[in-house]
Amino acid sequence: MQLPIVIAVLAAFVAAQGQADAASLATWRLAVASLAGLLGPAMAWVGCLRLAAKMPQERGFAGTAVVEADVQALRDLAARCETLEKWVFGTWLLSILAMFSLGQWVAMAQSLWNVQAWPLGRELAAIAPVVGSLLAIWGAFYWLEERLVETFRGELGRDTSGTLLRFLWLQTRQQLGLLVVPPLALAGLIELASRVGMSGPSPLGGSSNAADSWWMIALPLGLVLGMPLVLRRLWKTTPLPEGPLRKELLAHCQARRCPVRQVLLWHTGMRQANAAVVGLLPRLRYILISDRLLAVLTRGELLAVLRHELSHLKRGHLLLRLAALALPAAGWLAFAPAGGSDVAIRPGGEVVTTVSLAQGAKDAWGHPPSLAAPRWASLAFPAAMLGYFVLVVGSYSRWLEHEADLEACLDDQGRFDPWAMEDLADALRVVVGGDEGGWLMSWLHPPLSARLAFLRRAQQDAVFVRRFRWRLQAVAVLLIALWLAVGWAAVLRN
Q1: Residue 147: phi, psi to the nearest 5?
Q2: 395, containing H or E segment
Q3: HSE of 116 in the Cβ direction (CA atoms, 13 Å)?
Q4: pLDDT tens profile 319-363
Q5: What contacts 24+ positions apart, CB below 8 Å, involve 240-243?
Q6: Taking a C-beta distance cutoff of 8 angstroms, is the pair 223, 182 a contact?
Q7: pLDDT digits (tens, 9 = 90+) for 52-108
Q8: Most buried among 195, 224, 232, 466, by the most CB within 10 A?
Q9: Cα(310)–Cα(285) distance, integer angstroms
Q10: Do β-strands 262-266 and 286-290 pair in parallel, antiparallel, or remain unpaired?
Q11: Cα gap 95→89, rounded to integer Å
């Protein structure tokens, strides 16, 4: 359910930057905001309680007394839980959007508690109800999961004190850490720079306008380069113990000319089967392998997953995704009207006015052009960005996943290896599972059936592979051209 969370966090940050009309504040808006924040958790707890009431009596079998009725009952309950989860997160997302649009939650917080005077006050006030309602929803499903374990597995004989808190903390780090911490860090750095009056000579000897431009580029670039250090602390990771597997994984990285600094075991409480290679710089590059993936995959399947992740690195997929993701924001900063101006008096008495691009970016972030339009138009900007993320960035990301799958099936000489394809297919069946989840749930990754069909066609049709690679190259060239146009527009503005 990552997409609803992404949309809600995006809506929260957009709402935090809008301007509120104090005259429009009313008691009914406060009621709407409050009810919207409670709707998702209430639905989750009511649904979980109803499912728990329909559970059969505790089985208490010792592992050998499993009968077909037990297995079928467990499958039925699991299917009902998945259906409930989809309805809960869909309702929760709509309620969060209603909280920010109709309820004007940020305006309420600004009026009641003067949050704009706090450091990152508006951002924290906007993200607080998202996090709080998510914790309540996760708590409901954790309680239901515990009831399922007790019913179908008997007593576990373990101390559960503090387990709920550990589960909520783990979910927060994994589901929200990467979505919330980097934007807050970037906003905090920009706010700090504006408070201390960041200015000075630019690296190219230009005015303070150019210096501000460099700061606006350096801050997000520094976050991107340092993201692996943030990730390994946001997500619970430890170095993979020394042994043959660790040596083989590192040797595989060297053979693929993608050296990494360390192999990390990603602790998810056996809830996620996933792997990743993070980091643009070799000395800040890590392999992350989840505990569940390490437990369920064979050696060949694990190496197939590693080849898939290394293919993302070799083909520059991270940079391409970032380029596609940041293009609308960069275009707006390049073509939007300039922001504030600074007035300076030279020793000779000459008055000099300079336009600050950093202030312009701050104004553009705080006042999207649609906010000057009627109320309905204030939703156009985040809606357009959301549509771009889901349709354009999502489609492009699915193409890149297909390319990584294809690269994972090639041997060291670049020839298609049927055995490698079988290992990857088996690994995908374990990682993805049988639930397709709909196109919204697979907006960044193709469904399992589409990935397997792509590999089968790639094995049989070389022309199809050439056309697919040509299409990806054309998109990469288009991205480079658009970024050059944005950069040239920014230069002309200065």
Answers
A1: -65, -40
A2: helix 394-408
A3: 13
A4: 898 889 888 877 876 776 554 444 444 444 444 444 444 444 444
A5: 240/264, 240/265, 240/289, 241/265
A6: yes
A7: 887 765 554 444 444 566 667 777 777 788 889 989 999 999 999 889 888 888 888
A8: 232
A9: 11
A10: parallel
A11: 10
Q: What residues does 237 pair with on adjacent strands?
A: 266
- Return the amino acid letter for 5: I
- Check residue 114 and report its DSSP letter: -
Domain ranges of the chain: 2-59+67-154+163-197, 207-494
Q: Are 140 and 44 in contact (CB under 8 A)?
A: yes
Residue 104: CB atoms within 10 A of its CB come to: 23
The rounded Cα 133 to chain-centroid distance in angstroms is 18
User: 């298609």: which residue's tokens?
Assistant: 416
Exposed (0-12), middle (13-18) or buried (19+): which is 446, by Cβ within 10 Å? buried
Residue with tokens 């492009």: 396
Lookup result for tokens 């293919």: 311
Weakest-pLDDT range from 149-158, 250-259, 476-485: 149-158
Amino acid at 333: L
Q: Answer whether 0.85 is exceeded by the pTM.
A: no
How far lies 231's CA from each of 8, 181, 220, 286, 397, in Å?
A: 21, 10, 16, 10, 21
Q: Give the H or E element holding residue 155.
A: none
**Dmax of the chain from CA atoms?**
95
User: 3-state class of 381 per DSSP?
Assistant: helix
Helices (H) and strands (E) counted in the chain, each on its own, are 20, 6
Other Cβ atoms less than 10 A from the Cβ of 88: the count is 25
278 pairs with which residues across the strands? Answer: 286
d(CA 486, CA 494): 13
Token pair of 231, please? Answer: 């990730």
The interaxial angle of helices 317-335 and 208-225, nearest 10 deg, is: 150
Give the whole-angstrom CA distance, residue 362 versus residue 340: 9
437: left (phi over 0), alpha (psi -120 to 50) or beta: left
Q: Can you read off the two tokens belonging to residue 82?
A: 């998945």
Q: What burial class does residue 36 get, using C-beta atoms within 10 Å of its C-beta: 0-12 exposed, 13-18 middle, 19+ buried?
A: buried
